[in-house]
Amino acid sequence: MKHLLVDVNCADNDIKAKALKELKNICEQCRACELCKTRTSTVFSDGSPSAPIMLIGEAPGADEDASGIPFVGRAGQLLNQFLEEAGLSRKNDLYICNTIKCRPPQNRVPTQEEKLACQAYLMGQISVVKPKIILLCGSTAVQSFVEQDFKISMLRGKWLNIFDNIEVMAIFHPSYLLRNHSTDTGSPRWLMKKDLQNVKVKLDEILQ
C-alpha cells in the first residue's frame, strides 16, 4: 500500500487544512460506487489535520451518515472514553476517518469494490496529514492494508510494518466492545485500554 502514498509537501497546517478541504469537496461529489445513491452525506473526517495520530475505522453508521462526522454514535462515545482514559485528546491528538466515506445499507461490511473506490481519498488523507501513528480500528480497516488472513484478536496491539516512517497498530473497533462488557484481565476492553496506553507511550517517545 505504501506505493499509493503521494509525496505531498504541506509546509504548514493551513496548507494541510486547505488540501484536505479540497479533497473533501471532491469526495462529496463522488459517484464512483453505488453507495452514492443511498447516502445522506459523505463522512470525510474529524479532528486536527496536524494531529500526530490518524485513526482509520470501517465505514459510517446511521449517526455518522446523518451528521457527516465519523464516530459520533454509541461506538464513538465509547471510543472517546477509552481515548480519554489513555490520556489522548480526540480533538488535538487524532485525525479520524474511515476506510470508506459513505454508509453501506444496514451497516453491512463494505465490499472490496467499495473500498477500492474510496482508496484514493484515504491514501490522500494519509499523504496530507502525514501522521506519526496510524491506528487501524477493526478488521475491515486492517484488511485494507494487510493482505494475509488474520484474526483481529491475534493482530491487535502489535506494531505493524506497513509504511515507512509511520508506526501502525491494529486495535479493536469500539462497536465490538459494545457487545463485550467485561473489563476483566484479558477481556477485549482490558486489551483495548492496554493498547491505547501503549500508543500514548509511543507517541510521547516520538514527540520527545
* Tally of structural domains: 1
What percent of the residues sit in helical stretches (DSSP H or I)?
Answer: 40-55%
CATH superfamily: Uracil-DNA glycosylase-like domain
Mean pLDDT across all amino acids: 94
CATH topology: Uracil-DNA Glycosylase, subunit E
Q: What is the top-level CATH class? A: Alpha Beta
**What gap, in angstroms, lies between the N and C termini?**
29 Å
Give a structural overview:
- By secondary structure, the protein is an alpha/beta fold.
- The protein has one domain: Uracil-DNA Glycosylase, subunit E (3-Layer(aba) Sandwich), CATH 3.40.470.
- Helices cover 43% and strands 13% of the residues.
- It contains nine helices and six strands, in the order αββαααβαβααββαα.
- Strands 1-3-2-4-6-5 form a six-stranded mixed β-sheet, sandwiched between helices.
- α1 runs antiparallel to α5.
- The longest helix has 20 residues.
Keywords:
208 residues, alpha/beta, Uracil-DNA Glycosylase, subunit E, 9 helices, 6 strands
In brief, what are we looking at here?
This protein has 208 residues and is of the alpha/beta class. The protein has helices spanning 13-28, 62-67, 74-85, 90-93, 112-129, 139-143, 152-155, 174-177, 188-207, and strands at 46-47, 53-57, 94-98, 133-137, 159-163, 166-171. It has a single domain (33-207), classed as Uracil-DNA Glycosylase, subunit E (3-Layer(aba) Sandwich), CATH 3.40.470.
Please write out the topology:
Elements: H1 13-28, E1 46-47, E2 53-57, H2 62-67, H3 74-85, H4 90-93, E3 94-98, H5 112-129, E4 133-137, H6 139-143, H7 152-155, E5 159-163, E6 166-171, H8 174-177, H9 188-207
Parallel strand pairs: 2-3, 2-4, 4-6
Antiparallel strand pairs: 1-3, 5-6
Helix pairs in contact: 1-5
